[in-house]
Amino acid sequence: MNTRADMPYSERCPRCQMIVVTRVQYSTGTCWWVIFILGVLVICWPMLFFLCCNISKDVSHFCPNCGTLIAVNRRGC
Prior knowledge:
Keywords: Membrane, Metal-binding, Transmembrane, Transmembrane helix, Zinc. This protein is of the alpha+beta class.
């Protein structure tokens, strides 16, 4: 497995039993909401720039063949 959790990696899918390179999908998680709330409350508008980047979002790894969720990397703030 790669050391960077936001990069696709080779894994055996538990559902279809194929060795695949995962498909990555980003979604808003706890870290995203913490940055958003702090940015609004402190009126620190440059902080809100990080919401456009994937570094504040959770990363989900899916099997490209059957769509099964293989792993989730939750970002911590």
